[in-house]
């Protein structure tokens, strides 16, 4: 478990890795002929057997999601790739599409064949124009080489792939809001049921998967489901890209089996920056509850992180040392969620605004200790009551930070603001961080 397992990232250091020639030189598009020799249902069964779970945050079994598509429905079937990566701290899909877009394109072809879709879409966040252009060129190369279009590889299977640039809304990372945006409407979540598998894009059966989920499919087909299932843990199979950012010496993408620990990843990244210690971290981006150094040895798989009180999410590991004000960090995240709320439902639209007001007062050292209970009450009124997961995600850093760093919130009230001293070697008195359980 201490070694990396480069699969998706294996060709990132190849010269001009993003080109078709470089991709095919390393065996690219070999999965197509192997998949076309199988029945579509057998491809779905192989993905189910591999244990691949959604790499976009929820961790739902990918093969099971594909199996929900009603094949007796006469309407067209669609595959939509969610490439609207915008969770604070999440930075795995964009480098994957930049370094090796053909990995994703090949995954789209195999996945579309499995669910019997003849049209697929990659919905990319609109701000990343360089990624959009690279994907568009990769799709063009695939068409010219006969990997896309009519009668692919003489199989009789047809597929058209469209790269769609979104309008830059965080909410479009929610799958039904993404469908709304893809259809040309304002990106807001849909009421469910019906679920996308029954009535998704253009009211037709639709599968929506994350970039990394779809990009993992070719390697499963080529190497076999047993190979993939042989990595990771019993219930969280395979490998994943772990994004380390923040106060670590060598931030970046680390592809490893699920179940690796943060301690092992930090060691691979050269440790925390010199002279500093880990204070708190997120296991799956800012919408997952914070964890502390107490959790350094928690296996990073869906079950273990859940048991520790957080979520594995997108494996966006943001690491903060003792120079970071947890109150200020949480306020910044809360401001982000307030700004990105689509406004469709009252708990999220109003709740995130009030959370920001209360957090801002506390960060300035205004108010009383009772405001912490007000904050928790506000979170309780949002959690589970919002139209989608944005509201829930906005509450996670607040409730978890009060759980682990209540003393730091109180110190803001005592000092009349943040007690951070830029001239000091550490941000907070050691007695305060120890009381908050923030030292290793």
What does this structure look like?
- This protein is an alpha/beta fold.
- The chain has three domains: 210 residues, 3-Layer(aba) Sandwich (Rossmann fold); 83 residues, Ubiquitin-like (UB roll) (Roll); 110 residues, de novo design (two linked rop proteins) (Up-down Bundle).
- Helix content is 43%, strand content 11%.
- It is built from 19 helices and eight strands.
- Strands 3-2-1-4 form a four-stranded parallel sheet, sandwiched between helices. It has a four-stranded mixed sheet with strand order 6-5-8-7, covered by helices on one side.
- The longest helix has 27 residues.
What descriptors fit this protein?
19 helices; 3 domains; Ubiquitin-like (UB roll); four-stranded mixed beta sheet; alpha/beta; 43% helix; 440 residues; disordered C terminus; Rossmann fold; de novo design (two linked rop proteins); four-stranded parallel beta sheet
């Amino acid at each position: 478990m201490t070694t990396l397992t480069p699969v998706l990232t294996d060709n990132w250091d190849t010269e001009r890795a993003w080109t078709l020639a470089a991709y095919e030189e390393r065996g690219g598009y070999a999965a197509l002929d192997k998949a076309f020799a199988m029945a579509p249902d057998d491809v779905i069964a192989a993905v189910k057997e591999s244990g691949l779970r959604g790499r976009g945050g929820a961790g739902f079994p990918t093969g099971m999601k594909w199996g929900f598509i009603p094949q007796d429905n006469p309407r067209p079937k669609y595959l939509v790739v969610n490439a609207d990566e915008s969770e604070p701290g999440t930075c795995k899909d964009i480098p994957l599409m930049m370094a090796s877009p053909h990995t994703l394109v090949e995954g789209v072809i195999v996945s579309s064949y499995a669910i019997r879709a003849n049209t697929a879409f990659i919905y990319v966040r609109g701000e990343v124009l360089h990624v959009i252009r690279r994907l568009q060129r990769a799709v063009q190369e695939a068409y010219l080489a006969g990997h896309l279009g009519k009668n692919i590889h003489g199989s009789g299977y047809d597929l058209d792939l469209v790269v769609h640039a979104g309008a830059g809304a965080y909410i479009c990372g929610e799958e039904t809001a993404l469908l709304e945006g893809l259809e040309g409407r304002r990106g807001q979540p849909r009421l469910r049921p019906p679920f996308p598998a029954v009535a998704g894009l253009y009211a037709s059966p639709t599968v929506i998967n994350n970039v990394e989920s779809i990009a993992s499919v070719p390697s499963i087909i080529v190497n076999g489901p047993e190979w993939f299932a042989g990595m990771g843990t019993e219930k969280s199979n395979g490998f994943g890209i772990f994004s380390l950012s923040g106060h670590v010496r060598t931030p970046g993408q680390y592809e490893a089996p699920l179940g690796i620990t943060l301690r092992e990843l930090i060691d691979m990244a050269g440790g925390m920056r010199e002279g500093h210690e880990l204070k708190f971290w997120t296991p799956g981006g800012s919408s997952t509850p914070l964890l502390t150094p107490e959790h350094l040895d928690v296996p990073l798989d869906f079950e273990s992180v859940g048991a520790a009180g957080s979520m594995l999410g997108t494996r966006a590991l943001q690491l903060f040392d003792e120079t970071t004000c947890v109150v200020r960090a949480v306020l910044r995240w809360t401001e982000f969620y307030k700004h990105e709320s689509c406004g469709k439902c009252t708990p999220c639209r109003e709740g995130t605004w009030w959370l920001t007001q209360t957090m801002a007062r506390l960060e300035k050292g205004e108010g009383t200790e009772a405001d912490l209970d007000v904050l928790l009450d506000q979170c309780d009124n949002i959690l589970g009551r919002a139209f989608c997961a944005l509201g829930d995600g906005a509450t996670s850093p607040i409730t978890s930070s009060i759980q682990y760093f209540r003393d730091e919130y109180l110190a803001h009230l005592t000092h009349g603001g943040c007690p951070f001293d830029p001239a000091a070697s550490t941000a907070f008195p050691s007695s305060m961080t120890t009381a908050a359980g923030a030292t290793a």
